[in-house]
Design goal:
The chain is α/β, with parallel strands linked by helices and 240 residues long. The protein contains 6 helices and 11 strands.
Length: 240
């Protein structure tokens, strides 16, 4: 896997890719898929529309990567992950604190209205600074607990505690396919005729789905092959 994705990881870091975190995840997941199930293939192009071109030396395939998540949970995760990145910047640029990592455990059902983002950022910054400086958790409406560790840089991570993952339904898969199917003709025009869709599920957060194996869905889409890749357990399912 290191051989398959390291050159591409280096490339997006050197070029300061505008969406580097997303591309890093895509590379790691597709790298795992290729190593486990299609080891004769390597990534020949990292791009958009579709996300990759892969080849085994004889044939080329356009490959579109899509993560399927539960919308409301993902919105919450994304909101507080963004807040944590802002807090990292605030602390790195405006304080003299040394490197550390801290996991922030957020309370259930907290208010996360967009207009409150600057206020929330300030409150959480104060919480982190107090925890790092005095090992005390300031009373606040957002963070229930915080766990501090040594680290090589300033790293602030959002944690949402225990949760029950929802089962992936047939309707979720069909919706995801239809969303991407509209662009297949564009993918073929941009790259090659043979196009695959890889839908990734089963990551370790609340917005991820748990995979069922009793689906009865056929691949009636314009994609030549359609896969559901369960990331955590490294399982691959194909719709035929």
């Amino acid at each position: 896997m290191e051989e398959k994705i390291r050159p591409w990881l280096n490339k997006i870091e050197e070029e300061k890719h505008p969406d580097i975190a997303k591309k890093q995840i895509e590379l790691c997941q597709i790298g795992k898929l290729l190593v486990t199930y299609f080891n004769e293939f390597s990534i020949s192009e990292l791009r958009e529309s579709p996300d990759f071109v892969i080849t085994n030396g004889d044939i080329e395939i356009g490959l579109e990567h899509q993560i399927i998540v539960e919308g409301s949970a993902k919105e919450k995760e994304g909101f507080f992950e963004t807040i944590c990145k802002h807090v990292e910047t605030e602390i790195a640029t405006k304080t003299s604190l040394r490197n550390f990592a801290i996991n922030l455990y957020f309370k259930k059902g907290v208010d996360r209205k967009l207009k409150n983002k600057p206020e929330i950022t300030k409150i959480i910054t104060d919480v982190v600074v107090e925890k790092v400086t005095n090992n005390q958790l300031l009373p606040n409406p957002y963070v229930q607990d915080a766990f501090l560790m040594k680290h090589t840089q300033i790293s602030i991570n959002a944690n949402f505690g225990a949760f029950m993952q929802k089962h992936l339904e047939e309707s979720d898969i069909i919706h995801a396919i239809k969303k991407k199917e509209k662009k297949v003709d564009e993918y073929r025009k941009n790259t090659v005729q043979n196009q695959w869709l890889v839908m990734v599920v089963g990551q370790v957060n609340e917005s991820s789905f748990e995979v069922r194996t009793d689906f009865n869905i056929s691949n009636d889409s314009k994609f030549d092959r359609v896969f559901v890749f369960e990331d955590f357990n490294n399982q691959l399912f194909e719709l035929r």
